[in-house]
Amino acid sequence: MTTDMALVREYADRGSEEAFARLVSQYVNLVHSVALRQVRDVHLAEEVTQAVFVILARKAGSLSTQTVLSGWLYHTTRNASANALTLQRHRQEREQQAYMQAQENETDLEVWTRIEPLLDTAMAQLGERDHNALVLRFFEGRSFKEVSAELGTSEAGAKMRVARALEKLRRFFTKRGLKCSAAALAGAVSAHSVQAAPIGLATTVTVAAVQGTPVTASTLTIIQNTLKHMALAKLKTLAGVSILTLLLAGSTTVAVRQVLAAPDSPAFAFAGYAKPEAAFQSFLWALGTGKIEKVLDCCTPEQAARFKAKAKDKPPEEVSREIIHWADSMKGYQLTEKEEISDDEIRLHLLVQPYPGHPNVGNDVQVMQRTGKEWKYGGKFGVDIK
């Protein structure tokens, strides 16, 4: 258990105000900075900050010991800010066009001035692990060794995760005309994303969260609406994605809200190749038939060659039996995230349970590639163990 979660558990189990005060002191700047960027009003940002820590106090007992607290607080702050503003506040991206045309040799402050209005929107587009990696590295200023420890990966894996997530942010801004290098983006976020909260705010939110002192009606509404939003999000996650994972090779990241049950289920029906998700479903359908010819039709030429090599010198009945076994073994897997690598490659990340050759819970990353006008299965990219 991390130090943060040890303090959360100490508060949840023993009501330690000292433990909670330490958490507030550590993260009040982060929470207030995220809130201020969202609501653009100092007083409303203080209300949101207070609401977030009240929510933390109420949910302390239900948080997993594996929770990355800074990432959780970041998400919760953004939800609370959205509820505070309701539908009235939407980022106006057109105003950002005036800042356009990236210039080399910009200072951190110049880059920050251009990206700051859209930073939280960009962060919201990332998957949870990419999001947490950037919060830990650039918002908290953690070392790669510390990031790797929090994410449960190697230091090299943490560097790769941060670099990939940073590149996603850069592409997000580039598509909106805000051009800057990944290094400039990292420098600007590191230098300016977290600012000091108002003096005394940490004490105010600690007292409100721990001692239950009365809060304003608007703060109470923010708390209630945000808790409802979090509950709904949890229900959607529990009800969401149950899908099969492929064994042979190739992997990518995609979010698909669809249940694929058994090889004779309608969910295994052929879906064509017009989109990566449809092509992936068609590949699952092909596996369910047990016919190697249908499987090869769903693959890129390179992946088809790899499958043929694996099937070489095996009796047809054995090959068919293995293919059907692969389909059966995929039950209960979740397709959780969609990652655009290029116009011709999409990676689908699948949450998997332990199976032979993959003894841990984690993400199989599957690759879908465009061949002409069609998308085909390209093999397994790698295994991202949680």
Explain the overall architecture.
The protein has helices at 3-14, 17-39, 42-59, 69-85, 93-96, 108-115, 119-124, 128-139, 144-151, 155-175, 182-192, 201-210, 217-239, 276-289, 292-297, 301-311, 316-329, and strands at 254-255, 334-342, 345-352, 362-371, 374-385. With 386 residues, the protein is an alpha+beta fold. Strands 1-2-3-4-5 form a five-stranded antiparallel sheet.
Q: How many alpha or pi helices?
A: 17
Helix content: 55-70%
**What does the largest sheet look like?**
5 strands, antiparallel
Secondary-structure element string: HHHHHHHHHHHHHEHHHHEEEE
Describe this protein with a few key phrases.
386 residues; single chain; alpha+beta
Briefly say what this structure is:
With 386 residues, the protein is of the alpha+beta class.
Mind sketching the topology for me?
Elements: H1 3-14, H2 17-39, H3 42-59, H4 69-85, H5 93-96, H6 108-115, H7 119-124, H8 128-139, H9 144-151, H10 155-175, H11 182-192, H12 201-210, H13 217-239, E1 254-255, H14 276-289, H15 292-297, H16 301-311, H17 316-329, E2 334-342, E3 345-352, E4 362-371, E5 374-385
Antiparallel strand pairs: 1-2, 2-3, 3-4, 4-5
